[in-house]
Amino acid sequence: MTPGRAQLGLIQRDRARLWHPYAPASPDLPLWEVEAADGVRLRLRGEDGTRHEVVDAMSSWWSAIHGYRNPVLDAAAKRQLASFSHVMFGGLTHAPAVELAERLVAMAPSAPGRPDLERVFLADSGSVAVEVALKLAVQFQAASGHPQRQRFLTIRGGYHGDTFAAMGVCDPVDGMHSMFPGLLGGNVFAPRPPAAAFATPESIRAWVSELEEIAAVHSGELAAVIVEPVLQGAGGMHAYPAECLTVLRQVADRHGLLLIFDEIATGFGRTGELFAANHAGVVPDIMCVGKALTGGYLTLAAMLCTGDVAATVSAGPAGALLHGPTFMGNPLACAVANASLGIIAEGGWRDDVARINAGLVSGLAPALALAAVRDVRTIGAVGVIELHDRVDVTAVTAAAIRHGVWVRPFRNLVYTMPPYISSSADIEQITAGMTAAVAEVHECVPAQSRGLA
Question: Annotated catalytic, 159?
Answer without folding.
Answer: yes
